[in-house]
Design goal:
Among the domains are: 4-116 and 154-202, HUPs (Rossmann fold, 3-Layer(aba) Sandwich), CATH 3.40.50; 323-437, 3-Layer(bba) Sandwich (Phenylalanyl-tRNA Synthetase, Chain B, domain 3), CATH 3.50.40. The protein is α+β, with helices and mostly antiparallel strands. The chain is built from 13 helices and 22 strands. The mean pLDDT is 89. The chain starts with 14 loop residues before the first strand and ends with a strand. The strands form five sheets. It has a six-stranded mixed sheet, with helices on both faces. A five-stranded antiparallel sheet has the order 7-8-11-10-9.
């Protein structure tokens, strides 16, 4: 029996925003809150985002709107007409929470409820274990999170997806199934499709074990957090890290401090941060270079200026330029994607083979910058990217968003679909990275 009052204490006259996609989880949540509306005299705003990526999106939006009208709920709608980030999941999350923030301010709402459930928690924990994180990251996500101006509440965190579907069926609540949720291109979907079913078969209550695991790690993290905060007081001030003081701290606490700083910028998006990012920041701190920087997802930048590291947070801004670390696959602003593959016979400009010992990792994918040049394979000297676009008759409107693949030092390795650099290897050479532009 699902009872969200077990996981959240409602108050009389609460103003609550409920994120709703039209899927079974969010439709179940909206219905549950709707049934408590009169009991607590709630003001309920249903927030729906149409991401404009599927044919069914408009139909789903109309359904949520009709449901709200029928049940006297306030319907708020946001239509996404363009994207400009490193991947769809990341961009969609940012858009969604910016929308929530605007609505919280508009209605003076203290709470935004989302339909994250036990399966979501298990997927997140597993993804973080594979990618690497700290105690807070390994815990997945919290049932309550304080954001700027409001709290995110997840009252379904202890219930599984199957339980929520069953709730909809028993209460005759119509819902839609997003077909992209089964697309193995997305990392989370692979965990959902292949790993969770195995775990549930081993133990039908495995979600309860993950929830206990999460709570335990959060408790331990809170304990360690006291020392981490004390260390931050010693070496972090005015949004700057004092490098000399930072180096005096214990190695474990150093990493915890960095995760703590990142968690304040990324909040629930901390899943985007891995051990690799922490190592890059530590390399920046320990580098002998007086001026350097590390680029992170969500437009977060760590900039070294002599003996200080400054953190620049542009996560709330809409920026046309993009620059992101490539891991396994990347959905691009132009609608195409770059992914790492094990093998291919393709020798065209849509594929490049690289030897990681000849370049500085990680690989960065960004749009072009003034003065960009590439040392073209089988051609002496370098050529400006601008001239290559002209020669290849790339539409002027496409040039600013066209992906440029570089190593971490900024050396251009590849203009996907257009030109390869001298770093490209033939099939008979030694290489350990194969990238495809699809």
């Amino acid at each position: 029996m699902i009872n969200i009052e077990d996981n959240f204490k409602f108050h009389n006259n609460d103003v609550i925003i409920v994120g709703c996609s039209s899927g079974p989880d969010s439709m179940a949540l909206v219905d549950m809150v709707n049934k408590l509306k009169d009991k607590y005299n709630l003001k309920v705003i249903v927030a729906h985002v149409n991401y404009h990526v599927r044919e069914e999106s408009l139909e789903e939006s109309e359904y949520v709107k009709e449901y709200c009208e029928k049940n006297n709920l306030i319907f708020e709608y946001f239509y996404v007409d363009k994207y400009g980030d490193d991947n769809f999941e990341n961009e969609a999350r940012r858009i969604r929470y910016k929308f929530f923030g605007r609505l919280a301010k508009k209605y003076e709402a203290k709470y935004v409820m989302t339909a994250h459930h036990a399966d979501d928690l298990m997927e997140t924990i597993l993804m973080k274990l594979v990618r690497g994180s700290n105690l807070n990251g390994y815990a997945g996500f919290k049932s309550e999170v304080q954001r700027r101006g409001y709290k995110v509440i997840r009252p379904l965190i202890s219930y599984t997806k199957d339980e929520l579907i069953d709730y909809c069926e028993r209460n005759k609540i119509k819902y839609y199934v997003d077909k992209t949720n089964s697309d193995p291109f997305y990392t989370r979907n692979r965990y959902r499709k292949y790993i969770l079913p195995f775990l549930k078969k081993e133990n039908k209550d495995v979600h309860k074990k993950f929830l206990k695991f999460s709570k335990t790690l959060l408790e331990v993290n809170d304990y360690i957090g006291v020392e981490t905060n004390n260390a931050l007081d010693r070496c972090f001030k005015d949004n700057k890290i004092d490098v000399d003081k930072f180096k005096l701290e214990d190695k474990f606490i150093q990493k915890e401090m960095l995760y703590k700083l990142l968690s304040e910028s990324f909040q629930d998006d901390l899943i985007l941060v891995s051990d690799k990012h922490i190592d890059l920041i530590l390399d920046l701190i320990n580098s002998k270079k007086a001026n350097n920087k590390v680029l992170l997802p969500n437009n977060i930048t760590f900039i070294k200026k002599y003996n200080y590291i400054e953190i620049i947070d542009n996560s709330e801004e809409d920026i046309d330029d993009y620059s992101f670390e490539f891991i396994d696959n990347l959905l691009l602003p132009n609608g195409r994607k770059i992914e790492r593959v094990e093998s291919t016979d393709d020798k065209s400009n849509n594929t490049i083979r690289l030897n990681s010992e000849e370049i500085k990792l990680p690989i960065i994918v960004r749009n072009r910058r003034n003065g960009d040049k590439i040392k073209i394979k089988n051609l002496n000297g370098s050529k400006k990217i601008k001239d290559i676009f002209i020669d290849e008759k790339i539409d002027i409107h496409d040039r600013d968003k066209w992906p440029i693949v570089c190593d971490y030092e900024g050396t251009v390795l590849w203009v996907p679909g257009v030109k390869k650099s001298s770093f490209d290897k033939s099939m008979n050479d030694s290489y350990d990275i194969i990238l495809k532009y699809i």
